[in-house]
Amino acid sequence: QVQLVESGGGYVQTGGSLRLSCAASQTERTMDIMGWYRQTPGKERELVATISSSGSANYADFVRDRFTISRDNDKNAIDLQMTNLKPDDSGIYYCHSDLLVSYHGGRYYPEGLKLDYWGQGTQVTVSS
Q1: Which CA distances in Å does 3 have to 27, 44, 116, 120?
Q2: Rounded-to-integer distance, Cα 123 and Cα 92, Å
Q3: Is the Cβ–Cβ distance between 6 and 20 less than 8 Å?
Q4: In this structure, which of 10, 44, 99, 107 has its CB flanked by the most CB atoms within 10 Å?
Q5: What is d(CA 110, CA 3) in angstroms, rounded to the nearest whole number?
Q6: Cα distances (Å, whole numbers) of residue 35 to 19, 69, 84, 112
Q7: Which helix (H) or strand (E) covers residue 31, if one does?
Q8: pLDDT of the chain along its 128 residues, tens only?
Q9: Residues 30 and 52 sit within 8 Å (Cβ to Cβ)
């Protein structure tokens, strides 16, 4: 079973920076899309940034030009460098990854089966 292990997060003042890291373990496969989602108070979980195994990155509009996602396929890991943080960025940040497999649970899926994995979440708090 793939596990996503997160690190980073914490407390910072407005305008500060933090770095989140996430690594996939218990697998020899290179994960497909990896990324970060967040849940802020009063809102549903939302996409922050994703990156494909080929390095193509996608960002939510509210973090564009402030956050940078990067990836190391050899380590099956991603980083999210967050700069110019705002109080609205406070919340729990979750690492996510998916993996397309042909076999799962003893069954063969000719069209492939996408498996989704989530980390436990890490708290980011930005004070005003």
Answers
A1: 8, 23, 11, 10
A2: 4
A3: yes
A4: 99
A5: 25
A6: 13, 8, 20, 21
A7: none
A8: 889 999 999 999 999 999 999 999 888 888 899 999 999 988 999 999 999 999 999 999 999 899 999 999 999 999 999 999 999 999 999 999 999 889 999 999 999 999 999 999 999 999 99
A9: no
